[in-house]
Give the backbone structure.
Amino acid sequence: MEYTWLWIPVTLLAAAAQTGRNIIQSGLTQTLGTLGATQVRFLYGLPFGLLFLLIVAGVSGESLPGVNGLFLAYTAVGAAAQIAATALMLAAMRDRGFVVVTAWLKTEPIQVAIFGLLVLGDPFSWLTAAGIVVASLGVVLLSVKPKVVTDFSAGFRPVGLGLLAAACFALSSIGFRGAILALDEGFFLLQASWTLIWALGLQTLALVGWMIVRRRDLLLSCLSAWRVSLGGGFLGALASQCWFIGFALTSAANVRTLGLVEVLFALILSRRMFKQQLTVRQISAIAAILLGATIVMAAA
């Protein structure tokens, strides 16, 4: 494909946009709670997703891809898995296992590679596998101290939930890539935008429906916070748009591994790099992330 290389810059943009969205969502958590802040990425991201679709369709001049049973199935699996992953992650962190969960969540790229091979037949070389492992270990090393990964003082529940959450995040990536591949031949940007709209639509419908039945007060609070939420919705939609473009061009494992640089972006934005001297462990971790990402890009 002529634009295959484009997955690299769009994935880096996705990681940067997601970092900004996370910062906004973190602030909204104080007023809307975890569920309300999470809903922002869907409810307020949907209008921007529609705008992206209109722009791509207008520029390309092509008709919308349409839908089929396989596309709908993959999209539904991806949307549901993403919501489930978020719920599992939050449940694990409520068990006072935040650091442990953070470490085990970083197994996501490894699980993406495995699921991608089993479900979609996306192959990966030993070189790619090495890059995924090196980058993932670098993120774990940067996020937590090594001894935390094997610390089971809080029981095995946080570890199990962390691994299960990572598996669901991995399945969501596979679901979205599978949905894009299930579409008829067409412009890859339009395929990515079309899939994003269906995913955001299903997720918004599910969560808004739940709030109407169970938490109408929370839904009203989300709507009242529209000014701040618009920024989070835009960055969330931009990040998702870029992730989906990456999925349209290469395997989800490549995209999600390179996306681990999000940790470095978050570190830079938090100014931790500038407030204190980096330790040998942190320098080694950053080097591992960059090395692993470089290996994956070279092998793609």
User: Anything to note?
Assistant: The chain has a mean pLDDT of 84.
